[in-house]
Amino acid sequence: MTLAARLLIAFGVVAIIATALVGFTLREASRELIESGYLDRIDAAHAGVRQQLTWEAEALRGLLAPLCQHDTFVDRAHLELDRTRGNPDALDPGSRIALRHQVAEQAKALRLDELTLATGDGLVLGAEDVSRIGTKDRRLAALLGEVKSNDGKARQSKGSVVSGGAPRLRPAVAEMGPSLEVHCARTGHGVTLGLIGSRKIGPLLERLGAAYGVALATPMDGKIDPPALTSTSAEVVRLLEIPEVQGLRVVASVSREPLQKALARLDRDILATGATVLAIAIVIAVVLARSLSRPIVALARETREVMNGEPRKVQGRGGQEMATLAAAFNRTLDELATMRRRLATAERIAARREIARQVAHEIKNPLAPIRAAVETLRRLRDREDPAFDDYFEEATATVLQEVHRIANIVGEFTRFARLPPPNPELIDLVEVARRVVTLHSTPEAASDSREEHVAITPKVELSASTIPKVSADRDQLVQVLTNLIQNGLEAATSVRPDPRVVLTVAPEQNDRVRLVVRDNGPGVAEEMIPRLFEPYATTKEKGTGLGLAIVQRIVFEHGGEIRYRKAQKGGAVFEIWLPIGGPPLLEKPLHEQTARPLGDTPGKD
Prior knowledge:
By secondary structure, this protein is an alpha+beta fold. It folds into 3 domains: 1-310, Beta-Lactamase (2-Layer Sandwich); 319-419; 422-588, Histidine kinase-like ATPase, C-terminal domain (Heat Shock Protein 90, 2-Layer Sandwich), CATH 3.30.565. Helices cover 50% and strands 17% of the residues. The chain has 12 helices and 19 strands. It has helices at residues 3-70, 72-83, 93-109, 138-148, 202-212, 257-307, 320-364, 367-382, 392-417, 429-440, 474-493, 547-557; strands at residues 114-119, 124-127, 155-157, 160-164, 168-170, 179-188, 191-200, 215-217, 235-241, 249-255, 425-427, 447-448, 455-456, 459-464, 470-472, 500-508, 512-519, 561-566, 572-579. β18 and β19 (572-579) form a beta hairpin. α8 runs antiparallel to α9 (392-417) and α11 packs antiparallel against α12 (547-557).
């Protein structure tokens, strides 16, 4: 399966699962939130209805109690009944007419839906409904009898006892729905007279329901059947108890239709969002698959070309990871190439070392006979042998000079062959370079010109940037810098009155540092450049040609590189690259890779 197909499947599955999880969670949370809002509305309506109905009941109670206690028309009606010894039939017709009008006017003034003036046996003396006047109502007689026996709420008023009943729900009567009813009674001289007032609660419930967004009704008004008092899938129903009003219960209901519509709309939005997310995920997967597969295919192709010998570096396109991979591959190739060059150089150095040992062995063997011959010649001369007088001094001087020269060559080759492997430690390379530059900047480095005998003061400068500490052999790096700076000063002094050498230390990519030694001398002759780092290759009259060979060996054994190039404005430029981490971990140090010949013991060759 290709990378593109895997990405398409992965992105599609992730998009579907994420949309399903988010959608289900969001839907359930929305449903719970909306239903919780419904219940909160019902609870708020319950509290509001209870508070409002309680307030209405207490207000009604406060309206009727003063009427029974000291209102004029109640006092007059009580006096008339007292005068007739409680016989309503003996009342004056004018008094009856006056009571009828006064009750209706009082009900209107108090904004009561119904107000009734009745005797203790339930005889209606005055009411808004004229047809009720003169009739007896057993319910009213029971209410007034109940008030008459309620001694806890009785009060004295003009020799009479006034008492009141608790607010209660009055069931629907005829066209009048359920009402909130209160009553009071006045008893004196064996005559009981009572007032019964009521207000419809239907308009109050409609007003409160509209305020809270809830449908409110009483179970006994004929609008709600007992089976409908339970919640269904179509609406949420709750029965509210109002303990402050006897017998009053309110049914609150909220339709679930808005919830169903909201959930249906949410489902549509989730499906649309899921489809959109899936489409976007597919597009992103296609684009990402192409952006990933193309660089990988290109990198694989370039890798094959490079491995087949194409002289170039692979390019990492398509992101930081691809660039890192390409850089790692290029770095590996560079390290392999460097290792290959280093091994070849090591082989050449090993061969040269073997030659140096053999040359030293061959040169040092004749030294004893030469020295013996010279001593013999000197002894003969001491005996005044005339055969040797003409050439004795010249021969001995020549022999001794060559012996000294051969000894120097042997010493240089021996030092080159026995150069120890690096002993790396963390050093401050800038400080090492500064000390070497300071050493070569002293006046003692001055010399006279060849013809004019004018003092020449060499100038050695350091240009350093901040670099981390490097793992290297301090003494060997001092030797490298000293050789290069001295070579530059000697070359520049031979042709210029102002010899100048500049040492530059700077960080380099791939965790390396770069050392550059630049002089203003004549540079290296073209014919010497191929043999520049070979032992005993030199243009100096008294040089051995081992200085740059030693420098190259030290640099290579530190895992670095050294190159020569000609400066644009004249002079020689030697560039050295050293790894910050120190010499590479080879199987064996370079000095151990070439075994000594059997019987070749150091110090005896």
